[in-house]
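Whether sequence alone determines local backbone shape is best considered at the level of individual chains. When preparing material for the folding task, we compiled for one chain both its residues and its backbone structure tokens. No coordinates are needed to read the tokens, only the vocabulary itself. For completeness, the protein is quoted in full, as a sequence line and a line of structure tokens:
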Amino acid sequence: MFKIVSILFLLSFSMNLVAQDKVVIISPHRKSIQREFIPMFKKHYKATYKKDVVVEWLDQGGTNDDIRFVKAKYKGNSKTSGIDIFWGGGLASFTELDGLGVLSPYKLPDTIAKDIPASAAGISLRSKNNTWHGAAMSSFGVFFNKRLLKLTKLPEPKTWSDLANPKFMNQVTLTDPRRSGSAKTMNIIILEGMGWQKGWELLTAIAGNTRTFTHSSSDPIKAVESGDAVAAMAIDFYATAIIDKLGKQNVGFTLPQGQTVIDPDPIAILKGAPNRLVAERFVNFVLSPKAQKLLVLPKGNKEGPKNAVLGRMSVSKNTYLQTEGKRLSDSNPFKMKAFLKIDMEKVSSIQTIFSDLLGAVLVDTHKELQKAWAYQVKKGKHTSIIQKLAAPPITKKQLYEFSKKWNDEVFRNKTINTWTKQAKAKYQSLSKG
């Protein structure tokens, strides 16, 4: 009798396993996104498809780490990575993945596609071949601690250039662009918006004022929140969540007028997805009006997030119509105009080498740069000195030329080492007079 009961139990258990569908997602998204979307998806899946679904969530650290992980998986098996979905990380990252041929086309159902325009504020919300779809939108600006600003008698920063003011020395914190997709994008915005020479001067001065470079894009936000730093370059949704938590009287965030961009935050099905049907269903869910409302509504609203504010911009026009007067922000990307127009798809071809260049010249040599910057500021910096301090080791044209050989590890490592040595020597010479 006991054996029969055991066999029946095992059969029942096996049938339950068979009845469960599965999807594997790799994402740099923070935990709050996962905690809101995944439970709702599971509930939606059970109600819609009469089955349970298992969601396996992979996170290797930041966007760049996730991309490296996926590339390594395809290197081991060119047909599949064993992962279904790549979610989050910005347009430049998905353009890179698309160029590698690891994204699989997926045309949205008409019921969803009709609510999501092809573009907003001059940027695409889907690729031409439907290999990725914007699942949210983000912008970039300056996050600051208002109380600390008053204590240190510093003005509220309103532009990127404000962070380069020597008054902010050791009061800024940034993320290593080699570890964070958003940090990389913010550096690209400054360089593309201001031009190669002026852009490098500004990035160098901001790095000179920076107390430390972190590994995670959320760490600078936490530093400003705790009062360890006055200001940081930040992606909007990180700032929005903290402002909601601490109040507008304590912390603030500004989008530099005419000096920033809107960037789609895509979702894509990976080539050879082992759970293709479930992956399609997940994409449909993320882009549905019900899920999109999680991005824009405050915590506590019956259709909003349950655990934490997400503070993102939706890609759904109807979401804005249906949440008018209820949203965290009155901003509507489909009506906003004061943004830079940057060809992020073109820039994506140099994003890896550009991050390596920034890492070698501003991050790995940061101590030497800080000393040189502090010394020159104390002396009374001159334009010619700043230009010398900020001079990049190569031109923009050379950067594009070098990018064609950047997969050659010998060439890449040799070049990075040269950049690092040159930068250290330059900074040391400028910290002695």
